[in-house]
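Please, structure for the following, as tokens.
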Amino acid sequence: MKLYLINPYFGQGEDIRTEGATHSQPLGLGFLATYVRDHSPTEVEIIDPVPQGLTEEEVLNKLKDSQIVGLSCFADTRFYCFEFAKKVKKKYPHILLVVGGAFTYELDKIILKKFPHVDILVRGEGEETLLDIVNDKPRSKILGITYRQGRRVVRNGLRPFAKNIDKYYIDYSLFPPLDKYEKDLEAPAEYRKLKTISTISSRGCPFQCTYCANSHWQRLWRATSPQELVNRIKGWVTDFNVEYIRFYDDLFTANKKWVLEFCRILKQTNLNIKFRVLVRAGTDIDVLKALKDVGCVAVGFGIESGSDKMLKRINKMITREQIINTIKLCHKLELWVVGAFIVSLPEETIEDYNQSLSLIPLLDTFQTNIQIVFPYTPFYLELKKNKEIDDSIWFQKRHEGRLLYTKENFKSANFSEKELNWLALYTQYYHFLRRPDKVFEKYGPLPGAIMLIIAIIDTPLKGKLFNFIFKFRNLWRKIIYK
């Protein structure tokens, strides 16, 4: 039997304003493919069209020998997924089409009713569920799926989360070569020269920020055991000559004891490895010191806002003072600090934005994102209760891609998309002009100088030069990230 697992994204509609956006490995597909391959005689292949340079037609032609095709589905790529699924089913009616991803968790019944070419939806943790599907277990007995039975849509119960996730890992040889994927574009230029791998070592987050789409993890944090994680790192160094690791965990430092044990074991290996993790405002200095001591060179954390009012409004459970103190601790340890902000939070005003802006010079680099609405987050349920939204919005083509919390889409929003795009760009220029040293460190001498010149010229033009330059996005990225 041949199973194809596909990232159904072919490079359309890239957001040119998201400077830090990368095409990294579809890690979820990597976990699924490895588990099924290890536990069945099924031949498994991952298809990731952008780094492989494949067109839709080329991918469709590859599927002729397949019995099962799995597609990943997320809120911002949902239409790519459903439209490609339709093409697969039209060309190969015999193929069992399975779709999974965060977007399917709560909207499963509606998806099956609207898209008859999809056979099965996977909800929750997918490794065991996909294996049951591949092994042709009766659908009524497979936990974690929603499927069609005649004219009726059936939703089975959720599969309990695995307590020990050491059995879930990625064989990176199933992906295209590592150099087909972008490096950590938010790190200093010197680290982008290193052989880089992306990974996830834990699942879930114990916090419940109102905007966050990780509700499918049910606030449960589980991690690969420290010894197993170190063994994997040693394997990546041996097999792929890896020098830098980008951890995409929702919160790497959720458990202090786990982090300290990981650092203790990693230190014993004497590996000269560099890495970046996601921490949280208020992280213990002992944890930061331990991470630094074993090769951590960059930390990112979701600041979201510099306003205590906004932090409370989104249930972030941190304060402005904690944010500032954590940044200072990181700088004391000579860690590169990446901050993430959200603009257009619910009830946010320009005064709240200015409090976020005041934190910008403290950071080495940052990203500013417009508030995105995800299905069935606490914020989404609030909008639904106020009758500003309903589930039908996810299937309207005029809302294709990211659903932004803007005046154009929601009466309660305080900013238009045009205003928010300018605020995000102005924030970038504000940082450039106040921290030119960090611009040079991040981009290198010549690209850094180009970025600074553009910021000086373009600020009074309100982004007109930026918009023109980014029409040539691919060329521009080659210049600034070479």
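The CA atoms of residues 74 and 102 lie 6 Å apart. The longest helix spans residues 417-434.
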